[in-house]
Amino acid sequence: MTRWNDGVAELNAVSPDITDETNALPAKYFTDPDVWEMEKEKVFGRYWIYAGHENCIPDAGDYFTRTVGDKQVIVARDDDGTVRAFYNVCAHRGSKMVEDTPMTDPGNMDRIQCPYHLWTYDLDGDLRSTPRSFEEASLNPDLDDSDVSGLDPDENGLLEVQTDSIGPLVFLNFADDPPHTLDEQAGRMKTRLESLPLEEYQHARRYVSEVECNWKTFGGNYSECDHCQANHQDWITGIQLDESELEVNDYHWVLHYTHEEDIEDELRIHDEHEAQFHYLWPNFTVNMYGTADGYGTYIIDPIDEGRFQLIADYYFADPDLSADEEEFIRTSRQLQEEDFELVERQYEGLTSGALGQGQLGPNEHTLHRFHRLAQEAYNA
Amino acid sequence: MTADDAPFVACCPDCAERTTASDPNEVVAFYRRHHAVTGHDVTWERMPSLGTNLPADPDIDAVVAALDDSPVALGAVSAAASEWGWTVGETLDAVHDRRLTGALWEPRDDHVALV
After folding, report:
1. Which Pfam family, any one of them, does this sequence belong to (chain B) (predicted)?
2. Can you list the residues of chain A whose pLDDT is less than 50?
3. Tens digits of per-residue pLDDT, A69-120?
């Protein structure tokens, strides 16, 4: 029975049993601004979130910024070659330090310096220096210079955010004590991706689209292909949808799409004769293509409860793309545009307030996992 | 709101991402979000007519003076300055420069006025 917002139907938490009627996340979790505020802490503040690709910052001092909800970090390679992340916040009085710097146009700095009062930090986050005005008390008649104890570099450094990696893919976790390691969250995805030479591929293109729907609406659409036959007719040419497999793991799921004709091995990064679309909770995908020697990533980044940015990055062996690779990306973007139409239309319906709780079909088990993880995060 | 009926339309020429808005400052917000993750600038495709003549040579103070509101929305300044072919980023940089020389001030967020 469909659960309309008719004052009669009772809404429930997502049932662990996909055959139950209440197997979907209630609609309010997609449209309520308070839910987005909650997600900043309970989802994006607790789970491992993709930061970026370390090939984009190959040298010491290279950096980019990454914003997640209300938080922004500087992701930088230190003098030892380690990629670290720090809140983009000065330890002095909280000023934002570096300007927004996209991964695709990274900056380089010898040290991290706050422009406000010139507190300066080493690339490992330690406080390196402060101006003389912090070392003496010449303007304060109540103090002598000898009263100024100085600032311990170790105790006054930047606030570091935990990082971990899957090959060249760098992840962040804002929690002091994360409920899972990245290994636990990524599970088999980590093993699989680390068996591939991801680091040999270079960033070639970034396309960023703003879409008017909740981030989970798009995440759900990505996670199932029941809509593909009717809505992606160009893309499904050559794909055997009925032989495809939807694999569900704890925090990640994979859509395996088998191609009707065998494609030359040179046209894939992986061995299996299929395309593999990996979704890692909460908002990251790795797209292993069946017909192009490259891979892509999506970040499904919320702006608020009703909008998100899709940050689509494409990686190929040579960033100077061939005509075939350009055409491949064009097709990929066509697929995105088709999906944007679908999810914006779905969200327009959801925001009408008519539907209280949708229902998932038996082949939407990937989406069921997605909804269960959201419910689990909200309940934590 | 679609691109057909929106009073303000702007686009990223690098990746063809387009935004529609009823308030010109929504385009400024879009530019900031888009620039932060791409480094790209944004150009205006459609805006209501200013209804007054701008000087032939770019002069951001003249735009602020010519617009009726005081303070005037940054997005409106940028839309008007697009008549000189300026992007959103170029206009924001010019406004920033004029503020820091004391010619313009910001009596409320993302709205500027002549000093």
Report:
1. HVO_B0008_N
2. none
3. 999 999 999 999 999 999 999 999 999 999 999 999 999 999 999 999 999 9
Are both A96 and A234 inside the same structural domain?
A: no
A185 belongs to a structural domain: no
Residues A364 and A299 in one domain: yes
Tell whether A72 lies on the interface with B, counting CB pairs under 8 A: no
3-state secondary structure of B78: helix
User: Are residues A362 and A281 both part of a single domain?
Assistant: yes
Tokens of B73: 């929305």
Task: Determine phi and psi for A58, rounding to 5 degrees.
Answer: -75, -25
Contact A33, A48 (CB under 8 A): no
Instruction: Tell me what pLDDT residue B4 has.
Output: 75
What are the structure tokens assigned to A235, written together?
């893309």
Q: From the list A100, A103, A303, which residue is nearest B35 (CB)?
A: A100
Residue A21 forms part of a structural domain: no
Same structural domain, A234 and A299 = yes
β-strand partners of A203: A315
DSSP lists the bridge partners of residue A171 as: A50, A164
CA angle B94, B96, B97 (to 5 degrees): 65
Same domain assignment for residues A340 and A276:
yes
Alpha-carbon distance A20 to A51, whole Å?
36
Segment 34-53 of chain B within 8 Å of chain A by CB? 34-39
Q: What is the pLDDT of residues A244-284, one digit of tens each?
A: 788 999 999 999 888 776 666 666 777 777 889 999 999 99
Matching residue, tokens 């908002």: A283
Contacts of B32 in chain A (CB under 8 A): 100
Domain of A82, CATH number, reads 2.102.10.10
**B17 contacts in A (CB within 8 Å)?**
207-210
pLDDT score for A239:
78
pTM, two decimals, is 0.93
Residues of B in contact with A348 (CB under 8 A): none
Do the domain assignments include residue A235? yes
Q: Structural domain of residue A269, as residue ranges?
A: 197-379
Give residue A365's Cα distance to chain centre: 22
Q: For A372, what's the count of Cα atoms within 13 Å in the CB-facing half-sphere?
A: 19
Give CA separation, A27 vs A11, A31, A214, A217, A347, in Å.
10, 7, 11, 10, 10
> Of how many residues is chain B composed?
115
Measured from the Cβ of residue A52, the count of other Cβ atoms closer than 10 Å reads 27
pLDDT value, residue A2 = 85
Question: Would you say residue B1 has pLDDT above 70?
Answer: no
Which of A104, A209, A210 lies at the smallest CB-CB distance from B39? A104
Whether residues A77 and A131 share a domain: the answer is: yes
Same-domain status, A68 and A137: yes
Tokens 């694999």 found at:
A247
